[in-house]
Write the structure tokens for this entry.
Amino acid sequence: MHTLQIEHAVTDFDVWCAAFDRFDDARATAGVRAHRVRRPVDDPAYVVIELDFDTAEAAGGFLGFLQSVVWSAPENSPALAGTPRTRILGPADLVSAGRD
């Protein structure tokens, strides 16, 4: 399992949620297996999103979609504040890292 992690500030959480919900079908089509949306307890104007995919390639493909279609068009991301910070996370092999 690989996770696309996205962090960014928002100007209005409810508006952001509505925009996020509009892309449910796009997430399903891209292969998102599960997602989590979290907010720092001390910053309600910030979100951390985790999208789970089977492969890093699928996560990267969806990141490209977000960059070219969603984040580049203000009407698709009306409450986005600033540039999202992203990374693709893979499983950690604790045994090979010397940890059991």
DSSP finds three helices and four strands in the chain. Strands lie at 2-10, 34-38, 46-53, 80-89.
